[in-house]
Amino acid sequence: MSENNFNYSVEQFADLQILRYKVHGFDSLTLNQKKLIYYLSEAALNGRDILFDQNGKYNLKIRRLLEAVYVHYDGDRSDSEFQAFEVYLKRVWFSSGIHHHYSTDKFIPGFSVDFLRDAVMSLDKSQLPLSDGETVVGLCNELFPVIFDPDVMPKRVNQADGEDLLLTSASNYYEGVTQQEAEDFYAAMKSPDDETPVMYGMNSRLEKKDGKLTEVVWKIDGEYCNAISKIVYWLEKAMNLAENEQQKEVIRLLIEFYRTGDLKIFDDYSICWLKDTESRIDFVNGFIESYGDPLGMKASWESIVNFKDLKATYRTEVLSSNAQWFEDYSPVSSQFKKSEVKGVSAKVITAAILAGDLYPASAIGINLPNSNWIRSVHGSKSVTIGNLTDAYNKAAKGNGFRDEFVYSEHEKGLLDKYADITGDLHTDLHECLGHGSGKLLPGVDPDALKAYGATIEEARADLFGLYYIPDAKMVELGLIPDSEAYKAEYYSYMMNGLMTQLVRIEPGCCIEESHMRNRQLISAWALEHGADEEVVKLIVKDGKTYVVINDYEKLRSLFGRLLAEIQRIKSEGDYEAARELVEKYAVKVNPKLHSEVLERYKALNLAPYKGFVNPVYSAVTDEHKNIIDVKIDYNEGYTEQMLRYSRDYSNL
Ligand code: ZN
C-alpha cells in the first residue's frame, strides 16, 4: 500500500475500531537493525498468552474454546447468533480476556447458552481445549457460568471504595487472598529505611496454600515458563545483534531477570535500559503496567519494539534539555521540587510491533521505569509514539465528531489549525516533564496514596503539561507557532474531560480508569473553582450542551493552583486529601449529561475505543538460512492476525 491508498481503518465492531499503523522509515534501516527488530518482535509476540492468563484464570481456555467453534463451525455463518458469537470472540481477542479492556466489566454475550452448547457438542473432542480426563460436558459446566452468568467474575479490576478489592476482582493476581492479607504481606516486606526498595510483588501471583501466603513467581522454571523460555530464546538472538555494548547489557540483564525472577536484577536492568539513549532501536518486554491490580503492585506483561523517529525527536529533546527551567518555574511549592532534575530523556518513536498490554489497544506515550527510587535517582525514559498518533489523526479526519460537540466555528477553527500540534506537545510535556517532576518528602511511602495513587500521578503529569502549554517559553523554543495555539489544547481537554470522554462509560456506571478519572478531576475542579468568574461554562444551545471557555488565561492559573495542590498531596503522601479530590470530582458522572452525550455520539456511529493490527514481518533467507532481508507487510486483517497469533504463539 502506498501512502495515498494506505488504509488506516481496518474494521469496526461493538465499541471498537481497529486501525492499522504505518512503520514510517522501516525500509531505510540497515539489515542489522531490521533483523534486530525482527528478533525482538518475535520475543514480543511469544508473550501473548501471559496477559490472557493474568487477566483471568479462565481466559486462555475460553479463547481456545471460542476459536475452536469459530474455525470448525459448519452451521450458517450469516445466522444472527453466529454473528453475535463472532463479535464476542473479537472482543475477547481485543481485551485479552472476557472483561472490557477499559471499563474492566465483563461483557455480555449476544448469543444464547444453547447456541454455544450445540456448537461445542458438534465438534470433535480433539478440537477442544480439554484438560486431562475432562469431558466435553465438564468443560461446558466449567466455562459457561464464567461466560454467561453476570454474577460470576463480573469485574476484572474492582476499585469500589469500601469493598475487598481483591476478592471482588477477577484478575488472576491473587488467589484466595483478602485485601488485608495482601497489604499486610507486602507491608511486612517493606522497610522505611530502604532507600532503594524493589518493586515488591511485581512479578508473581500471591496465593494462599494451606493457610499460608506464597508468591508464585513468573520466570523460567516457574509460572509461565513456556512463554518466557521462548521470549528468552529470541532475546538471545537479539543480543548478538545489539547496536552497542550498553544495549547488549540491557538484553543480558533482562534475560537474567527472566531466568531468576530476582527483582533486584530487574532494577539493574531498568537502570541500564534508561541509560541506553544512543541506540536507534529500543524495546520494552516484561512485567510493566500495574493498572490491572487493584492494589497497583502486580504488573501485566507487555512489549513494544520501536525505533527512534529522528526528526520528531528534536521536539522532545528541546523540552528535556530545558527540564530544569520548567521545574524551577512551576507553580509548585519549592520544598516539593527537585533541585536537580536528572536524566529526563525523551524521544519520539515509531512503533514496529505491539504486544501484551499494548495490543491491540496501545498507549501513545510511555514513561518508564515505574520504580520511584530509580526515577528520582536515575531519571526515566520517556517516549511518545508518533506513528500511532498519526494513525489516530488520519483515521479520524472528517468523521463528524467536532461538528457535533464543539461549540462554534471559532473553536472549530482553533482545533483544525492547532489541535494536532498541541495534542502531541501536551503528550510530550506529560511524559517528558510531568511524570519526572517533583519529589516525595523524605520518609513518605511511595504507595501512600494506594488506590488513588495512579489517578493523582496522571493528574500531576497532565497538569504540568496544561500549565506550560501557554507559556511564552513554548513559542520561544519554537514548539508551537504562536501564543493562540494553546487554546486548542485547553478547549479539547475541557470538552473531553467534562463531556466527550463519557462516551466510554456505560449508562449508570461511574468512572474507574485512572487516566479518565484524572481528566474529569482536572476539568470538573476547574469548572467549579472558576464558576464565580465564569471562566468555563457549560452552555445549552438547541437542547445540546457545549463547553465554552470565556477566559483562557484564568483557566491557566486554575490549572497552576491545582498542580500545586496535587504535587503537595503526592509529596506528602496525603491519602485523605487524595481520596477526597478523587471521590468528589473524578468518579461520579452527571447522569443527564451522560445520556445526552451518549445519544449524540451514537448518532455519529463511531467507536469510542481503538486498537491496532500489527504489520507482518517476514525474514527473507538465502540458501544457508542466513537472513538477507526483512520484509514488512500491512495486508493482514484483524481476525486473520488473531488466529495466526493463537496458532503460532500459543505457549501456555
Ligand atoms: Zn502518564
Please tell me about this protein's structure.
It contains 24 helices and 15 strands. It has helices spanning 31-45, 48-54, 59-72, 80-95, 113-121, 136-148, 179-189, 225-239, 245-260, 263-275, 310-321, 323-329, 372-378, 386-396, 401-405, 409-434, 453-468, 472-476, 486-498, 514-529, 552-572, 575-586, 591-604, 638-648, and strands at residues 9-13, 16-20, 174-175, 204-209, 212-217, 281-289, 300-308, 344-356, 365-368, 380-385, 536-541, 544-549, 609-613, 616-621, 627-633. Helix 8 (225-239) packs antiparallel against helix 9 (245-260). It is of the alpha+beta class. The site of zinc ion has 4 residues, from helix 17.
Summarize the structure.
The protein has helices at residues 31-45, 48-54, 59-72, 80-95, 113-121, 136-148, 179-189, 225-239, 245-260, 263-275, 310-321, 323-329, 372-378, 386-396, 401-405, 409-434, 453-468, 472-476, 486-498, 514-529, 552-572, 575-586, 591-604, 638-648, and strands at residues 9-13, 16-20, 174-175, 204-209, 212-217, 281-289, 300-308, 344-356, 365-368, 380-385, 536-541, 544-549, 609-613, 616-621, 627-633. It is α+β, with helices and mostly antiparallel strands.
Number of strands: 15
Q: Calculate the terminal CA-CA distance, rounded to whole Å.
A: 35 Å
Shape: globular
Strand percentage lies at 5-15%
Query: Percentage of helical residues?
Result: 40-55%
Low-confidence stretches: none
Mean pLDDT: 95
Indicate the radius of gyration in whole angstroms. Answer: 24 Å
Largest sheet: 5 strands, mixed
In spatial order, strands of the major sheet run: 6-7-8-10-9
Helix/strand-derived category reads alpha+beta
> What is the tally of helical segments?
24
Bound molecules: zinc ion
* Oligomeric description of these chains: single chain
